[in-house]
TrEMBL record:
Signal peptide range: none
Composition-biased stretches (Low complexity): 474-485
Protein name as it appears in the record: HDOD domain-containing protein
Segments for region (Disordered): 472-499
InterPro entries for this protein: GAF-like_dom_sf, HDOD, RNase_Y/CdgJ
Sequence ranges assigned to domain HDOD in this UniProt record: 22-218
Length: 499
């Protein structure tokens, strides 16, 4: 079949919407980009966008702790802390690149052709990250996003036009042309044009969208930022071809020579990074997949086995950040540390509103809590577990909320909005013998295996104490300046209000 560019794009977006696999990708990418571009963006906003996806969160944290970011810090256990150390742009682009890969992961697990293309994209992104980090390039993570987007076009065609993808491969082989030229013959659009269209549809920055266009490396005029991004992406993609061929040193040197001068890179270093990737066992897995193997992975669920160690690390991180952020930032960081340590699906903070005599969900992380920001319940005592935690000032674990004797003690609003939750946890934050906030976390439809031990409870209460101390300090500062502002005031987005 032969189509025009416009018709191909129309069919592409239609098929993506019909199959339902990619609307979540578009929402995630749009959310991350919006958080990065907003003039009022905060660590909490970007962290919330990343934390809406558990697997993505783990990858961001793992990379933030990797050797390439070692000069900036270590033992990072939360996205919030990673953003404080590395900055909004770095973490935002890092999250974007991981999300682009993850968006195709589920489909790739079922189709070998998708798996091969996804493996190639992963390798190209890894090379772009390695070569820029070794050279201390500030825009390295942005270059990774551009490198992956060069592959997204191929992934989209593989996914949405499977029969045409086969025709493209056969046409390229028969005519001795690039698969991009073959794609233009058959679908009326080249891979760079399709990648640029996808970048614009997802609302990515103009520099990234423009970097999808081919460039001419001849000449000595300085490269524009978009051309530099494109050159890094092209070099990274060509490196993948050499890795799958065995990473011959002479061929790597020839590749490096074509790009090194224009990108101000050392030829030997480009060769070295390629050779290191070929030896790295984690990259060898993707090299194998790109030549025909397959691989599937499943993210962990439920409370981690090493939760006590995670809580200890999280507490250290919370304490380290106390002097660097305000009460809102510290509360968000604490929520995230608890979520990561205990493996929560949802984590939220209900904050006391003295004037209205109710507790309001002002902050939240997780799939189910984001739409519920603004949810309230009355401060006046009622015979349920939430008010028991408020009154006693001690943490409470409900290990089975569906047990008949427990159900009457679960408030109706919780049963309505969290109907699938089996186990949840409550941690009151006290100030001057009064509960001013209640931290909540649940494991979704999973039960909390093994409960929460005494040492874990100790770490959790210490985290609550850190928030309390921060609030007390803020209150004293406000009193000294005559400021009556609420230290935890924040306008919730998507608030539902009411019980």
């Amino acid at each position: 079949m032969s189509l025009t560019k416009e018709k191909t794009l129309e069919l592409l977006w239609q098929r993506m919407a019909e199959r339902g696999d990619f609307p979540s990708l578009q929402r995630s990418v749009t959310g991350i980009v919006s958080a990065m571009q907003s003039e009022n963006t905060s660590t909490a906003d970007l962290a919330s966008s990343v934390l809406s996806d558990f697997a993505l969160t783990q990858k961001v944290i793992r990379l933030a702790n990797s050797a390439m970011y070692a000069p900036f810090g270590c033992n990072v256990t939360t996205v919030s802390r990673a953003i404080m150390i590395l900055g909004v742009d770095t973490i935002g682009h890092l999250a974007l690149s991981l999300k682009l890969l993850e968006g195709f992961g589920e489909v790739a697990a079922r189709r070998d052709d998708m798996a091969r293309e996804l493996a190639r994209a992963t390798l190209a992104g890894a090379f772009a990250r390695d070569i820029t980090s070794k050279n201390g390039i500030r825009d390295g993570e942005e270059a990774v996003v551009c490198t992956l987007l060069h592959h997204v076009a191929r992934l989209l065609v593989t996914y949405c036009f499977p029969s045409e993808w086969v025709d493209i491969q056969e046409t390229a082989a028969e005519q001795g042309i690039s698969d991009s030229d073959a794609c233009e013959q058959i679908l009326g659009i080249s891979f760079p044009e399709l990648a640029e269209a996808a970048a614009r549809k997802w609302g990515l920055p103009e520099s990234i969208a423009t970097s999808m266009r081919p460039i001419d490396l001849d000449g000595d005029a300085p490269l524009s930022h978009a051309d530099w991004l494109c050159a890094v992406a092209n070099m990274s993609n060509e490196m993948v071809t050499e890795l799958t061929r065995g990473a011959d040193a002479s061929r790597l040197a020839e590749l490096a020579e074509r790009y090194a001068d224009r990108l101000a890179l050392d030829i030997s270093e480009v060769v070295s990074v390629g050779e290191e990737m070929a030896r790295d066992t984690s990259h060898q897995e993707f090299i194998a997949i790109s030549t025909g193997a397959s691989n599937t992975r499943q993210p962990p669920a439920g409370k981690p086995l090493d939760s006590a160690r995670r809580l200890a690390d999280g507490l250290s991180e919370v304490r380290a950040a106390t002097g660097e952020t305000d009460a809102v930032g510290l509360l968000n960081l604490t929520l995230e540390a608890i979520l990561q340590s205990l493996g929560f699906v949802n984590c939220a903070a209900f904050v006391r509103a003295p004037a209205g005599k109710f507790f309001e969900m002002r902050f939240g992380i997780g799939r189910d809590v984001q739409p519920l920001l603004g949810l309230t319940f009355p401060e006046a005592f009622e015979p349920d577990v939430f008010h028991l935690a408020l009154t006693n000032g001690r943490a409470i674990l409900i290990d089975n909320a569906r047990e008949p004797r427990i159900v009457p003690r679960i408030p109706l609003w919780h049963r309505q909005h969290f109907s699938n939750v089996k186990s949840f946890f409550l941690l009151p934050v006290r100030q001057r013998n009064q509960t001013v906030a209640l931290l909540y976390g649940d494991w979704g439809g999973a039960l909390c295996a093994g409960g929460i031990g005494a040492k874990e409870m100790e770490f959790l209460h210490h985290m609550g104490d850190e928030i309390s101390s921060k609030l007390e300090s803020a209150a004293q500062q406000n009193a000294a300046t005559g400021n009556t502002a609420d230290s935890l005031a924040r306008k919730p987005s998507g608030a539902t209000g009411g019980r």
